[in-house]
Amino acid sequence: MNESNDITRRNLLVRVLAGACALTLGGCQKLSESTWFSQILGTGEKVTYKVQRLLIPRKAMAQEFTKADRSPLFRSNGTAMPNNPAYSAMAGRGFADFRLKVGGLVERPMSFSLNDIRALPSRTQTTRHDCVEGWSAIGEWKGASLGALLETVRPKPSVRYVVFHCADPMEEDGSSPYYESIDMEDAFHPQTILAYELNDEPLPVANGAPLRLRLERQLGYKMAKYVMRIELVEDFSKIAGGKGGYWEDQGYEWYAGI
Amino acid sequence: MTKSECPVSDGYMYYRHKLPVRIIHWLNVILLPILLMSGLNIFNAHSALYWGKSSYTGNPPLIELRSKEGEKGVISGVTRILGNEFNTTGFLGASKNAAGELNRRGFPSWLTLPGTQWLSMARRWHFFFAWVLVIYGTCFVSYSIFSRHLQRDLLPTKEDWRSIGKTFIDHLLLRHPTGEAAKNYNLLQKLAYLAVIFMLFPLIILNGLGMSPGMDALLPGWVDLLGGRQSVRTIHFIVAWSLVAFVAVHLFQVIVTGFWNNLRSMITGKYRISSEAEHERK
User: Fold this and answer.
1) Considering CB atoms only, which of A69, A250, A258 is closest to B212?
2) I need a surface site. Which of A62, A121, A245, B243 has the fewest CB within 10 A?
3) Are B67 and B128 found together in one domain?
4) pLDDT single digits (tens) B222-277
5) CA A50 to each of CA A21, B94, B179: distance values in angstroms, whole numbers, following the listed order
6) Is residue B4, in this structure, part of any structural domain at all?
7) ipTM value > 0.90
8) Are B116 and A47 a contacting pair at CB < 8 A?
9) A63-249 — its CATH code?
């Protein structure tokens, strides 16, 4: 008698606990879907950005590795072949007629051929690519210093961000081209390059040919592939979803240093 | 005679937990599940753990939660630990979603925050509350040192060390200190709390920061001292489950040493010390 009482009491307790857990989890799901709570959680990103900028010296270098550390395969994530006829045609011609347009708030808007880009001061670096998903791959990149490229177009003093417009549409109907943005501190960092070589070979299409951004102190999604146009802006709130990048518009943080 | 039948006059109330300790305790109760569950959602985005600098130096993974597609497209969940495969359908690798359909996912929906596979939102939860934890954790450690809570209540005394064997055996036999002896933490309790505060928490924060490409640049190569970027992800995961193991043992002890008395003392601070006479009666 006593025992069965105990069991029902225990059952009840378990049910109450399970119910409380279900309510809490349901509540957390609701909170996640609400704008206001998501914005509160988003302050975490702002704190991280401020603290990391304060703590990490401007020119502090991301770790570099040796050739022996290179991953046997440099994984292609996201787009492996842009669903874009103009891009495919250009790739078919070996990017001979590729022109990188650089404009926006600059004194001298310019366009660069691949040869022009190769003529800019370059840097070779073996670095680790950390994906937001959790995996890492190590590769050796060679590319033009973004800082050197930006100096030739003479940014206006009001410029705060560099925006990269890409050839890969993120929607199946060919809309929502990938784009990304970085601040001036990152743009002029010595390891920030427009890479045209991976592991001593011309950059493969799967990894962003003919040019991809390398931004070694942030996560992979910041490093736009298939860069076609660079725009210098004071703010990016009028571009696409207004959050400064394709994945940012989907809810990822603009500052991806963590 | 059971405890609940004892009149209070048989013992007396002792002020056991100061307010800051109680606040920290309940903050932990809220924060740890949030950090664990949002962390598991983040883990699910790539449900494999490696040792080394990249996911290739550390291939094959130490731990992997995968799904397999069998005949007629039926999926099953597989957990691989150090090369050994286990079928964990329904829990790890493949589990049911809210609609009751079997889905490919590392940890099941009821263990992740948010319940849906939603990496960007899980990261928001995780990093916001990681900051909250770092801030109150720092406050708590400073408080413990300046109020002498650390020296008075947590650091083992000479007597503690002398009775190490007895304390250990008492623990195994679930013989818990009563009466005046229950006022202080015993040696194993002290060591457990010290390990959590000064080892597991610093380790989990350090290895969490080791995953940040920004913090990686602070001192080039420091992440490799811990085994590399993929290793710190693995250590972060293992320490998280060590904290879960601590909580499990802690809850067990809370229940066997008098659940309501413990709960009250962690809410109001007051802990009932039973009189020696009562023990004799038992």
Assistant:
1) A258
2) A121
3) no
4) 999 999 999 999 999 999 999 999 999 999 999 998 999 999 999 999 999 887 54
5) 35, 39, 52
6) no
7) yes
8) no
9) 3.90.420.10
